[in-house]
C-alpha cells in the first residue's frame, strides 16, 4: 500500500506561482495513478489534477493552462506546479492514489498542505 505526504505550498499574491510536492512510500508507487485534490473553506473537496502511472495527465477545467502535474517515479514523487494563481485557488491541497482513473481517489486522506492566494 502506498502512503503519501504533501509538502510545499504557502502564501502568494495573485498571479504568483507555487509548487506542491507529494512524496510516496512503498515499492508500488510507480503502479498508481496519483491525484491532487483541494478543499476550500466551506466547500466540498474537489478534483484538481491527476497523472497516470505512465504520465498521462488530466485537469479540472479551471486550472487548465495554469497548473502542471508531473511525476518522478525514481523519487516516488508527484508535483503540482501552479502558475498564475488566483484567490479562488486558496485551499488545502491533498494528494491521493487513485482508486479509479482519472478522478476517483482512495477513501483515505492525509493532512494536506495549505495554499493561500491573496488579492
Structure description:
With 119 residues, this protein is mainly β. The protein has no helices and 11 strands. Strands 2, 4, 5, 6, 9, 10 and 11 form a 7-stranded mixed beta sheet that branches. A 4-stranded antiparallel beta sheet has the order 1-3-8-7, with no helix packed on it. A hairpin with a 5-residue loop joins strand 5 and strand 6 (57-59). The mean pLDDT is 95.
Number of strands: 11
Shape summary: globular
Beta-strand portion reads over 45%
How many separate helices?
Answer: 0
What is the chain-wise order of helices and strands?
Answer: EEEEEEEEEEE
Query: Quick one: biggest sheet?
Result: 7 strands, mixed
Structural class: mainly beta
Roughly how much helix do the residues carry, as a percent range? under 10%
- Rg, Cα atoms, Å: 13 Å
Unreliable stretches, pLDDT < 50, 5 or more residues?
A: none
The pLDDT mean sits at: 95
* Intertermini distance: 40 Å
Descriptive keywords:
119 residues, mainly beta, 7-stranded mixed sheet, 4-stranded antiparallel sheet, 53% strand, globular
Question: TL;DR of this structure?
Answer:
The protein has no helices and eleven strands. The chain has strands at residues 3-8, 10-13, 18-25, 34-39, 46-51, 57-59, 67-72, 77-82, 91-100, 104-105, 113-118.
Task: Write the SSE topology.
Layout: E1 3-8, E2 10-13, E3 18-25, E4 34-39, E5 46-51, E6 57-59, E7 67-72, E8 77-82, E9 91-100, E10 104-105, E11 113-118
Amino acid at each position: 500500500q502506498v502512503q503519501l505526504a504533501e509538502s510545499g505550498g504557502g502564501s502568494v499574491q495573485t498571479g504568483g506561482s507555487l509548487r506542491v510536492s507529494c512524496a510516496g512510500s512503498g515499492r508500488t508507487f510507480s503502479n498508481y495513478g496519483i491525484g491532487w485534490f483541494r478543499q476550500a473553506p466551506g466547500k466540498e473537496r474537489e478534483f484538481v489534477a491527476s497523472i497516470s502511472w505512465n504520465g498521462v495527465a488530466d485537469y479540472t477545467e479551471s486550472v487548465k493552462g495554469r497548473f502542471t502535474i508531473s511525476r518522478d517515479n525514481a523519487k516516488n514523487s508527484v508535483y503540482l506546479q501552479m502558475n498564475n494563481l488566483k484567490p479562488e485557488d486558496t485551499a488545502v491541497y491533498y494528494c491521493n492514489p487513485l482508486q479509479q482513473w482519472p478522478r476517483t481517489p482512495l477513501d483515505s486522506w492525509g493532512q494536506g498542505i495549505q495554499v493561500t492566494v491573496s488579492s
